[in-house]
Recover the amino acids of this structure.
């Protein structure tokens, strides 16, 4: 299990060619840094029918995986440029392949048809996870062909060999 810090998503590859998408938050209070469930970089978001970002899984229900395509949040908690906008636009890495270290994961969680994170190139999915006393939308192991949830990436370095951070490469595969 990881620990949440100031920087929870650290790109290991160039992100200049990555298409980033800034959309308004459906729940603008999630941008407030003092909110007990404020968003942190490295959490996963999806787009609702109003073309706004929402958490990819429902906080407070750890057994519910994200059943929609999800995108990783790139903005750090409490960014003043995000707070200065009335619609609280928030940026996610939207299209393109990248490699990144994250602290927002649970390597031991087995959610639905998932599996604990144990091997390099293991597929990953998004689910509500608990880190400390709080819930986040983070990465857990995908269960392969028995798992109907979307694959959001693949493990490239295990936390034990990477200072407690999970390294993954993005990408959906059918």
């Amino acid at each position: 299990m990881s620990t949440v810090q100031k920087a929870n998503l650290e790109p290991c590859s160039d992100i200049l060619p990555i298409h980033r998408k800034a959309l308004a938050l459906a729940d603008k209070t999630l941008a407030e840094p003092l909110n007990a469930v404020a968003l942190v970089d490295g959490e996963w978001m999806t787009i609702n029918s109003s073309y706004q970002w929402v958490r990819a899984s429902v906080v407070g229900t750890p057994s519910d995986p994200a059943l929609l395509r999800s995108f990783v949040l790139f903005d750090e908690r409490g960014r003043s440029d995000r707070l200065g906008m009335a619609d609280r636009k928030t940026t996610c890495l939207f299209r393109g392949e990248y490699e990144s270290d994250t602290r927002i994961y649970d390597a031991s969680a087995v959610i639905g048809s998932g599996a604990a994170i144990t091997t390099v190139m293991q597929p990953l999915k998004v689910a509500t996870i608990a880190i400390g006393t709080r819930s986040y939308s983070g990465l857990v192991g995908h269960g392969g062909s028995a798992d109907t949830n979307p694959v959001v990436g693949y493990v490239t370095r295990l936390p034990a060999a990477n200072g407690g951070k999970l390294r993954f490469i993005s990408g959906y595969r059918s």
Notes: The longest strand covers residues 123-131. Residues 80-83 form the longest helix (4 residues). Helices lie at 80-83.
